[in-house]
């Protein structure tokens, strides 16, 4: 179970919603036959407290009452107030597309921004989390401790892979092989130009090797399908280790993603800005332990001839992706997890 964790399997009933700023009991009763099971979701939220909490059930078994405590492997669950994300107004829509929110873990808001927004126009870039139907593959230069608590509930479909990915990224892991990125646009100006087009490219700063033998982590979600998450992407770009000079960090390149792509603004609310988003995939190949660092370069061109340029990064640092050796897959990794009860280690 988790605090406000929407990745928990949707097939479970919602038992209750709690605000920890004003706690109350969740009054619910369930009858279970001998040998039967039941389960549900409790959503907990807060705006002001940093709290430790757990779920306490009063169970009547064979006429004998007893108390059952549900917590995080013997420790309380924790929750903290939401942290303001770093970014321009374009980033306000990032969660709509599945951007991971790592502000509490990393202290930098997670997604990159451009500070040169002009005349109400802003652009933001972010990596999306893997999603229900996409394999998760991450690479670390060390073994990450504390994952046993997350992967202990492999029979909770929809929860394990998402939690594992957030924990690995917070610990400094690199997404590997393939990742989906979103470029978000917002325009607050009343006379926004409806005929805006954009050029988007990756500026790959070069490749480098991890400072230790890479540790691979893979996870396959429930109902995983081979096509993965690519149905959301409008383009895909390949970073090839051979073309990048393998481990020579001095070799940089610019890889086009979109050229002259229309930005089709829409307005979701009367007072909100007009927005749009372009989603694309980045695949990386090369020797094991190789990683690439890149920024997303965005040029906006209006019908009136106005041109603005934006460099998007990961809160002041380059985006990073680890290479996938040819023929390898997450299933060949040393630490592989599959939702619904299977663990290979």
Description:
The protein is mainly beta. The protein has helices at residues 103-106, 148-151, 160-170; strands at 13-19, 40-45, 51-53, 55-61, 64-70, 77-79, 112-113, 121-127, 136-140, 174-175, 178-187, 197-209, 215-220, 236-240, 253-262, 266-267, 274-285, 290-301, 307-312, 319-322, 335-338, 342-344. The chain has 2 domains: 13-79, no CATH class; 89-344, no CATH class. The protein contains 3 helices and 22 strands. The strands form 6 sheets. Strands 7, 8, 11, 14, 16 and 17 form a 6-stranded mixed beta sheet that branches. The protein has a 5-stranded mixed beta sheet with strand order 10-9-13-21-22, with helices on one face. The two termini are 24 Å apart.
Indicate the low-confidence ranges by residue numbers: 1-10, 103-118
In sequence order, what are the helices and strands, one letter per element? EEEEEEHEEEHHEEEEEEEEEEEEE
Question: Whole-number radius of gyration?
Answer: 22 Å
Bin the strand percentage: 35-45%
Euclidean distance between termini CA atoms: 24 Å
SS field, number of helical segments: 3
From the spread of the alpha carbons, the general shape counts as globular
Mean pLDDT across every amino acid position: 78
Total number of beta strands: 22
Major sheet description: 6 strands, mixed
Helix content: under 10%
- Count up the domains: 2
Helix/strand structural class: mainly beta
């Amino acid at each position: 179970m988790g605090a406000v964790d929407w990745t928990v399997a949707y097939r479970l009933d919602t038992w209750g919603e709690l605000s920890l700023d004003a706690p109350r009991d969740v009054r619910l009763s369930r009858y279970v036959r001998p040998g039967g099971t039941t389960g549900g979701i409790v959503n907990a939220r807060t705006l002001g407290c940093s709290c430790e909490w757990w779920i306490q059930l009063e169970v009547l078994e064979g006429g004998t009452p007893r108390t059952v405590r549900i917590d995080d492997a013997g420790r309380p669950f924790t929750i903290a107030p939401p942290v303001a994300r770093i970014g321009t107004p374009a980033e306000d829509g990032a969660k709509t597309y599945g951007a991971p929110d790592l502000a509490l873990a990393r202290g930098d808001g997670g997604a990159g921004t451009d500070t040169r927004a002009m005349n109400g126009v802003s652009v933001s870039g972010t990596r999306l989390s893997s999603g229900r139907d996409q394999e998760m593959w991450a690479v670390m230069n060390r073994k990450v401790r504390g994952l046993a608590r997350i992967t202990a509930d492999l029979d909770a479909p929809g929860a394990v892979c998402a939690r594992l990915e957030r924990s690995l990224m917070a610990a400094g892991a690199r997404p590997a092989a393939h990742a989906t990125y979103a470029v978000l646009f917002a325009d607050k100006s009343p006379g926004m130009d409806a005929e805006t087009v954009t050029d988007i490219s990756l500026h790959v700063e070069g490749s480098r090797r991890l400072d230790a033998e890479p540790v691979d982590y893979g996870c396959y979600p429930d109902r995983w399908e081979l096509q993965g998450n690519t149905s959301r992407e409008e383009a895909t770009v390949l970073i090839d280790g051979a073309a990048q000079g393998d481990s020579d960090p001095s070799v940089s390149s610019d890889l086009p993603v979109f050229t002259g792509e229309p930005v089709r603004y829409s307005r979701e609310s009367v007072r909100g800005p007009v927005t749009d988003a372009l989603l694309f995939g980045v695949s990386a190949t090369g020797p094991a332990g190789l990683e690439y660092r890149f920024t997303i370069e965005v040029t906006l061109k209006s019908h009136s001839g106005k041109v603005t340029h934006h460099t998007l990064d990961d809160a002041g640092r380059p985006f990073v992706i680890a290479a996938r050796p040819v023929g390898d897959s997450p299933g060949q990794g040393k630490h592989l997890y599959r939702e619904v009860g299977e663990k290979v280690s």
